[in-house]
Amino acid sequence: MSASQVPPVTAIGTPRITAGFDEYGRLDLIAHQEVHGGFAALSSGELIGLADRIELRGRGGAGFPFARKVRAVLDSCRRQELPPVIVVNATEGEPPSWKDKAVLTRGPHLILDGAALAAAALDAEEIVIGIADDGIGQSSITAALAERRMPCPTRIVTVPHRFISGEGGALVRGINGEAHIPPGRKVRSSDNGVMGLPTLLSNAETYSQLAIAARLGPWEYNAVGIPEEPGTVMLTVGGSATNPAVVEAPTGTPLMDVLNMCGADIGPGLLVGGYHGKWITAEAAQTVTISRKGFAAVGGTLGAGMLIPIGSKTCPLGEVSQVVQYLAGESAGQCGPCRLGLPDLARAVTLVSLGGNAVENVRQAAGVVKGRGACSHPDGTARFALSALEVFAKDVEAHTNGEGCGKSVRGILPLPYTAEQGARRLAVDWSRCDGHGLCSAVAPEIIRLDANGFPAFPQTPLPPWLENGARKAVNVCPALALRLTEAATK
Predict the structure, then answer these.
(1) Which of 50, 172, 367, 488 is the most core-located residue (most Cβ within 10 A)?
(2) Which Pfam families does its entry note (predicted)?
(3) What is the pLDDT of residues 380-405, one digit of tens each?
(4) Range(s) of the domain holding residue 333
(5) Digit-coded pLDDT (tens) for 231-273
């Protein structure tokens, strides 16, 4: 992977974080200073006051108030008499998301400015920048660090490019040399983070917004956007959009302005907030303004700023099934709701997509995992699946009735599987298949029979937990028609 894979970056209104991108492509230190100018150091009290006055919240998905994070770290430092560590989460392991990588590759000094502000204000021991091992942005941030002096030692740590590796606890564990998975219990990084020190952890866009606010001051920063959520947000628009892009937009911007700019065919639904987000209907999308409050009004979530229209040319349930299978495979495997519950949920969703009457099974499986995991992964996956049943109710009915939607799965929802990773998929030699049906009896969670008695299954790479079942189905095929093949790189 390379920086060339990052989608185009554009802005609605006057750009802030993305200022200079059109002119310079990537801003080195000289270009960065020319575009953004300098800024003054802040005390811890001034840092908290600024974050409070601009209502700065984390842009990684949870939306936690940044000022509260800083207070918690300061309280922990005083209580334990320890210095803090500043962590920048630029891992962005969720397949549809590109906004942080866009800033990492093209405006790295803005991220470093925000981290430096926090480190100087808190008298930090160290700054750690977490990035994914896919290589995107690594050369950019490395070059940026070589061009400047930071207020304390600063290092880059790479983590596996996986969905759960970017979870806060997983990132801290990875930095500490442990497994890159969330801890098995709730741990506050503000109390016990990197090297056991109080740790201020937020994502790359959050630190960039902080750097912008330090230059502009709260009054000018708040002049853009809506009063309760001022400023701009970075959005990734993908899915069926003919012009996918990373878009910087003021809060309060109509959602349709962003989607129309990117040539998005919404189709029956739009995924907002990413794979831990929610689906909303095309009708609801017409009324939304870009903000946490705006999305909440239609039952959605801003999350990490992902907007994924499904379009009208793919099978929505097949797309959803693929993603739930992927999310089940991304489980850390250290608590029952993830290790056992998510595969059950994925099987139920897959059965619905293949025409089985398993809607209640989906609801039951989602109910089992909700609120019971050691991290947010089970809850987010359940939210994604349940909202899909609501938004795609007509497709659910058509599949359950045996008619189907008549559409193939086009891969509108991106997945990270590649042949190099060893992912495999089922395939059929139709010149051999006689429709014996034994494969569906052995692996009903993967294979069902169509109206003519021939095997039907999602055209998606198999997650690890389904491979054994698929192998058994291959072994019992009397005509040797079913086989496992290497999945094609997407």
Answers:
(1) 172
(2) Complex1_51K, Fer4_15, NADH_4Fe-4S
(3) 999 999 999 999 999 999 988 877 88
(4) 316-401
(5) 999 999 999 999 999 999 999 999 999 999 999 999 999 999 9
CATH number of the domain enclosing 121: 3.40.50.11540
Tell me how far apart the alpha carbons of residues 406 and 399 are, in angstroms, rounded to a whole number.
Answer: 9
Contact between 128 and 202 (Cβ < 8 Å) = no
pLDDT interval class at 330 (50, 70, 90):
confident
Q: How far apart are CA 459 and CA 22, in angstroms?
A: 39
* 299 and 360 part of one domain: no
Identity (one letter) of the amino acid at 201?
L
Residue 417, pLDDT > 70, answer no
54, 168, 299, 319 from 413: Cα distances, Å:
34, 24, 21, 6
Q: Which of 198, 223, 248 is the last residue of a domain?
A: 223
Bridge partners of residue 181, in order along the sequence: none
Quick check: 275 and 380 in contact, CB under 8 A? yes
Cα(279)–Cα(239) distance, integer angstroms = 13
Give 418's pLDDT tier (boundaries 50, 70, 90).
Answer: very low
Residue 163 confidence (pLDDT)? 81
DSSP state at residue 340: I
Whole-prediction pTM: 0.87
Going by C-alpha positions, the residue among 46, 41, 103 that lies closest to residue 70 is 46
Q: pLDDT-derived band of residue 487, with 50, 70 and 90 as boundaries?
A: low
Residues 206 and 285 reside in one and the same domain: no
**Residue 379: CA count within 13 A, CB half-sphere:** 7
Cα 235 to Cα 98: distance, rounded to the nearest angstrom: 8
- 129 backbone dihedrals φ, ψ, rounded to 5°: -110, 115
Q: What is the CATH number of the domain that holds 257?
A: 3.10.20.600
Question: Domain containing 360 — which CATH number?
Answer: 1.20.1440.230
Nearest-angstrom CA–CA distance, 236 and 308: 8
Residue 452 exposed, middle or buried by CB count within 10 Å (0-12, 13-18, 19+): exposed
Could you count the other beta carbons within 10 Å of the beta carbon of residue 243? 12
- Give the DSSP letter string of 391-430: HTHHHHHHHHTT---S------S-----GGGT-EEEEE-T
**Element (DSSP H or E) covering residue 102:** helix 99-106
3-state secondary structure (DSSP) of residue 489: coil
State the total domains in the chain. Answer: 4
